[in-house]
Amino acid sequence: xxxxxxxxxxxxxxxxxxxxxxxxxxxxxxxxxxxxxxxxxxxxxxxxxxxxxxxxxxxxxxxxxxxxxxxxxxxxxxxxxxxxxxxxxxxxxxxxxxxxxxxxxxxxxxxxxxxxxxxxxxxxxxxxxxxxxxxxxxxxxxxxxxxxxxxxxxxxxxxxxxxxxxxxxxxxxxxxxxxxxxxxxxxxxxxxxxxxxxxxxxxxxxxxxxxxxxxxxxxxxxxxxxxxxxxxxxxxxxxxxxxxxxxxxxxxxxxx
Length: 256
Prior knowledge:
Elements (H helix, E strand, L loop, with lengths): L8 E9 L2 H13 L6 E5 L1 H12 L6 E9 L1 H17 L4 E3 H10 L16 E10 H18 L3 E10 L3 E10 L6 H21 L18 H5 L2 H12 L16
Antiparallel strand pairs: 1-3, 1-4, 2-3, 2-6, 5-7, 6-7
């Protein structure tokens, strides 16, 4: 746990971009500029239309990008000035200003409350992955196509969070308005979506999971991600845990 003093200032700003590609270029530009945002979120077109409209009341087409800085006010203001310049150079559709950014911060938890996000009898899942800036858009489109082409009844939405100087993390979500009533059929549907979407991400340079964990559910895909290197991981596991008593069966380590 880290404990930090309450910052002297915390400020946010939002832009609407014509598409996800231009918004991603702006977000990558922020990170490549060595700025230090306290938060960045980029919502794809469907999630902008679905959630930004519902939560923030912004009824626009495009990709919503919001970011903020905190710390000493003079440093916050300087970083915000530089960040806005980067975004304006990337060709936004609309500068939504600090008011929209502050509104996002104040309402950020509402995104996960009914009726804004998921609710019964919907069936849904969160597929989180991470990739470099050179691959992350390909990962997004591959996952989107895998879900929408194989499951016409599903909706695919996503936003990008956890930004680094080399890439960012994608929260991809699939939503079925109504799940199969049979529990076994529902579980089979759920697992098939995961298999197709995660394999699509791996093919384009993504990983199985960014931080929600591999565990038992996704361990079956570890060898597909790491290939021959999985033997190295198994060897390390065996040396550290020769009796296989530490979370047996998780992360694809079967009997190791």
